[in-house]
Amino acid sequence: MRIDEARGEPEELGEPAEPAEHARFAEYLDDLQQVADADEFALVRTVLGDPDRAMAQSAVVRHVDRRAADLHRHPAFVPWAEEMTAATGGRHPFLTRRLEEWALFRAMELGRAWRPDALLNSSDWLQRKAAETSSNATVLELLAVHGRTKRIRATADGNRPGRDYRT
Fold first, then answer.
1. I want to staple 140 with a disulfide (CB 3.0 to 4.6 A). Which of 17, 25, 90, 160 is the partner?
2. Cα(62)–Cα(77) distance, rounded to whole angstroms?
3. What is the C-alpha separation between 101 and 115, in angstroms, rounded?
């Protein structure tokens, strides 16, 4: 007996059917990639209404990361982030936190006010991102000494200004 038969799932023409949530995930990513600015937040709300909450949040966080990477250095980031936070409806703490961390990353990169404890209490994702891509010497020095993981500390240390490991 094949595994598909044991699960009671039909198999057509020798290929197992792709799970419906995988197909929806791919479709959501495609739709979010192509959405017009005016329709973006309505589409995010639609995606987040999917019955598979984990899959929906995953699709939206990919979208948030892509858009925030494009916008974080521009003034348009602030209204976009506020509207995106509203679109998540406060029912998605992971997405809210990711948007907050993008705002912190933006502040650090633009030389605006930020608190070192906010960075040190942030997720591994933000600490890794900052260690890998930040141009802020203070951020890199802080993470080189106090980053949460060995990888974060080593990456930040290697990216600090004036560090040249070529001999």
1. 160
2. 16
3. 12
